[in-house]
Amino acid sequence: MKKVFTVLLIITILLAGGFFILNKIISKQKIIEKEKIGILQGDNKSQNSNSVNLNDQNNGSKGNRSGNLERKSQNAEVNNSNTRQGQKDVVKFTEEELLRSDQQGNVDVDVIFLNPLTEEKEKELVFEVMLNTHSVDLEKYDLSKISVLKTSDGIRIEDGIEWRIESGSGHHITGLLKFPLYVNNRPILSKDTDYITIIIRNLDNIPERTFQWEKDYLKGVY
Fold it and tell me: Are residues 86 and 103 in the same domain?
């Protein structure tokens, strides 16, 4: 009986020791798991904080870009407005307003008065002449010899005229026709001049083709 009791006692002691050791191991594992959870939660908080900061920075950056774009747009509108105002001051008339045409016979003649389109004061009255036809050799006509300029003041210019072909040939020609603005060192135009007229004679057997510009187009030319 004593031996049996002794064996049971030893078994009981061993089981008690085993349970104690097992509880220790389980407790340590729980502590370790809690520590891991705490670390992970800390990392997540840090990441969330960084994410918020990044979002704030991105939002701030977007705000700055938006502000810059708005300022650029406003500046562009101001510059465009100034440019339009400047252009109105520089260019008083359009080419269409300064264009005169004659379509008699087989030749179409278009003449643009160029002086009002430039800021510079010229020593000549300059006209761009465009000749177009389907049947006439236009190169044989020297416009300096068949053109006359007259003013409302009774001045008539037939000498000192220049004709220079700029482009084209045959049936389609564009050139510059120039008349002196001064005769005997005196201007042929004044504030009292009401109009100027160019007459081109005997082009394709048409006795006269007339092209006239009124007083408003002469301001700033003389």
Answer: no
The per-residue pLDDT of the chain, averaged, comes to: 77
How many structural domains comprise the chain? Answer: 2
Q: Are 125 and 221 in contact (CB under 8 A)?
A: yes
Q: What is the pLDDT of residues 92-131, one digit of tens each?
A: 899 999 999 999 999 999 999 999 998 777 889 999 999 9
CA 85 to chain centre: 16
pTM of the model: 0.59
Specify the residue for token string 């001049």: 193
Instruction: Supply the pLDDT for residue 219.
Output: 87
Domain presence at residue 179:
yes
Domain end, chosen from 73, 90, 107, is at: 90
What is the band of 194 on the pLDDT scale with cuts at 50, 70, 90?
Answer: very high
CA distances from 134 to 105, 131, 137, 204 (A): 11, 11, 9, 12
Does some domain include residue 222? Answer: no
Structure tokens at 203: 């082009």
Secondary structure letter of residue 205 according to DSSP: T
Shared domain for 109 and 61, answered yes or no, is no
Residue 168 CB partners (closer than 8 Å, separation 6+): 174
If asked whether residues 42 and 152 sit together in one domain, one would say: no
- Determine the structural domain holding residue 30 and report its residue range: 1-90
